[in-house]
Amino acid sequence: MSSTEGVSELSFLPMTTADLDSVLVIESASHIHPWTKGNFSDSLAAGHWAYCIRPQLEDAIKGSYLDPEILWAYCILFPAVDELHLLNITVSPKLRRLGIGAKIMNAIEGVASQKKMPRIILEVRPSNVSALQLYQSLGYEQIGLRKNYYPADATSGLREDAWVLAKSIKLEE
Predict the structure, then answer these.
(1) In the beta sheet, which residues pair with residue 162?
(2) Could you say which DSSP state residue 9 is in?
(3) What tens-digit pLDDT sequence spans the chain (173 residues)?
(4) Hey, how many other C-beta atoms are within 10 angstroms of the C-beta on 21?
(5) What is the pTM of this model?
(6) Long-range contact list for 95-101, CB < 8 A, 24+ apart?
């Protein structure tokens, strides 16, 4: 049985400012140094590809996690000339380890292929073991290191390096 069996199909809807409160609840529960509302607003204003991910309507069960009003995850992508840069992907803490992250990454790869972007690039904290395992299982490889990239501890001012990962994408003919 695959890890995604039994998981609802996903609906990707463009993120709007009306979504930001729901996004911030997940963001603040998920990250050591979460993005601010301003970070998300700036991304939307800059025209980054931002998506809210919810269960598809035909799977809807009002008041449950299959309620399409419930935000499951979100992602923000920056389309550069010849690569798609994944800026943020976050799954709600209550819905992790169900294969949702892998489904989202597969959808992102599909978008990159359709848009003729031969590579996806992202940064990840080396301490984020579950994310690293996901990316590596999907064929992402480390291509670089950004020293002191992430804030790690506000009181000490310590920072954490970022591993830069990339994957070549087979383009649609």
Answers:
(1) 146
(2) P
(3) 233 444 457 888 899 999 999 999 999 999 878 899 999 999 999 999 999 998 765 555 555 555 556 789 999 999 988 899 999 999 999 888 888 899 999 999 988 998 899 999 999 988 888 899 999 999 999 999 999 888 776 677 788 889 999 999 987 66
(4) 10
(5) 0.83
(6) 95/65, 96/130, 97/3, 97/130, 98/3, 98/4, 98/7, 99/2, 99/3, 99/4, 99/7, 100/4, 100/7, 100/10, 100/53, 100/72, 100/73, 101/73, 101/131, 101/134
Contact predicate 22/50, CB 8 Å? no
∠ CA 91-94-98, rounded to 5°: 65
Token pair in block for residue 169: 């994408």
Instruction: Write phi, then psi, for 6 (nearest 5 degrees).
Output: 85, -5
Q: Which element (helix H / strand E) includes 42?
A: helix 37-45
Name every residue whose Cβ is closer than 8 Å to that of residue 112 and which is 6 or more positions away in sequence.
Answer: 84, 118, 119, 120, 169
| Residue 7 main-chain phi, psi, to 5 deg | -90, 135
